[in-house]
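Run folding on both entries below.
>entry_1
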Amino acid sequence: MGTDSDYEWEKEVEEFQKTKAGVKGLIDSGITKVPRFFVSSASQRFSNVAQTKDEQIQAQIPVIDFRGIEKGGGARRIEIVEEIRRASETWGFFQMVNHGVPMSAMEDILESTRRFHEQPKEAKMDLYSSDGRQNVRFYTINGHLTKSDVASWRDAFACTFLDGVMDPDVIPPICREEITEYMKHMINLRDILSELLSEALGLSQDFLEKMQLMKSEYLTCLYYPSSPEPDKTFGTVKHSDPTTLTVLVQDNCGGLQIHHCGNWVDVPPIPGALIANIGDLLQVHFYILDMFIISISN
């Protein structure tokens, strides 16, 4: 067995990228050991251990019922805005139910994601790229991986909708219809959330729209193959989203965790729910609002 100094990190990453087959390709090849650039250190793995079951009961991500969000919805809309404000300030996350996105569209996007990633690698190779400037791409490593980084044990298919628009013909036929339909609903939900979040900041309903902070959409369809060494890998490494807002649909397998008050908290799937993750750009606004509220109450 070689030492760390013998390990040719760059060569291993380069050889993996050249296959254009992703993590699914590694599994299909029959590997029994995970490539080193996917392996998390012991300290990273232990820091991602969730709380005990008893503690998790006391720390559950807020669930917000969107019934009554219509303009002029009266007291219930005001309550929803306040629930969003509190969840955004204290958690940076909340789950949405009765949000208007049909269950069928959510199930179809999950199924089409599975179909895309479980194609033979030859059907996906031409789309493989780590270049984020590509509007439609398949990738495992996003951008440039350095020796201090750990790669996520997952594959991704991504589409960028600039100003909410993309030519459907550039989306692979195997998932074109489902993505097109899902994005129609996401754009409608985006407009609703833009208003609610603007109000939660104490600003006019059209603030985020005027600032163009939610103008374009980036859809990522993630696929997490089983790992031959699950104790050494993460499906997604610890991160925050450098965007305005992320809306996530989970399958029934679960596995999502968020970092809250120094602990990792599980987010169990709720049938029909969508998860809102306040991105870094928007979180700053809520942080400033929270500071202002604290300062005047003192």
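>entry_2
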Amino acid sequence: MSVSYAVSRVLRRASPFLFQNRYESTVASLTKDEILILLRPPFTNWSNIIRDAEKVVGYPTSFMNLRCLLSDEFANLALYLRKLVGSNHLVMQTAKNVLYGDSKNLQPWGLMILLLSKSVKSTSSLPAKKVEEQQRALAELTEMIRTGHMIHRGIVNVPFAKRSKNTESAIFGNKIALLLGDYLLVTANGMLAGLRNSDVSYIISTALKDLSEGEFFGERDEQNMPLPGKPKSTDEDYQITFDTKSISVDQVIGKPMREWTARTVFNGVSLLGRGCQAAMVLNKQSTEMQNYAYHFGCHVGLAWQAATELQQLTSDSKDQFCLASAPVLFALEGNPDLYEIINQGKNDVKDVDYEDLKFNVLKTDAIVKTKKLYEDHAKKATAYIESMGENESVDMIKKLINTF
């Protein structure tokens, strides 16, 4: 239902042991009907809502980046992933757990941008068809930037002093992750330039800056995985700000609500917000409406992230979870002694006893607070979208927010 879903389908082709056996040499060998079947997500309540939303925008966003993914360059790069099967490289985990994962974790950012663009009437002097084409391109490039960033985060740090025969697969995997991510980002930037709108280019560039800064925000282990700040006591009420220029690391680290919000905004939510803002620019809406769209996108992203982290901590899965997630940060606030478990991962987060940490997190009120966090942001996102009017697109956006 997004570029993430579509990329996962291509990556399946490249990894027969990880996903399924397929013997065609290139993605382009599939017929049109086979492509449509492959890209259709499983029938679930969430995917049914996505289909309803696609009917509203009149565009099957599940196939949003098909022309990009069927290119020879991307197909050839994907096929190189065969050599990484069994290596446990982070880029393979990204392919399996992030790109291929649960359909609910594939948050439909592009679809949300298209719905938002249809929720208000365009006042642009350009023909309606041209504006619609720009909106689709904006939705596509936003998804591509997001997915390219995810793939780049699969790069493994291999210190020069530790390189040997045993690290060859890791180094090769890094090259593939770098090339795959670069391909998506370069293509997205080309599409951004093709819009020929300097305001939109500036807005999306701001989001790219935030993504880059997010990789250096707060403490990290040797693989650049985030580590939560040591809990600090504070009685201050936190006024949420989405102005990333005014966020100081010292002011937020160690304070659950502040830290989680800042980390999440920098690590992707800003991109969704800027994408929504840019959609209003293309529709020639007022500055006030553009700001509403940006805040709407940020609140939607924060709500979805809180919901995702909640699912990870309350499921029966024994998989590794983010140490800087909202439930962990809230648990640290209630029980600072848990930071001793976190300290096990100072060098590598894999050294943390996640089963023990999860058990202790669930004993606190962290889950209740995270649920409230989701509800608060979902309500604020709903309030912003309702201020833009009442129509079929607005109703569908509210359904997407509250179903996740």
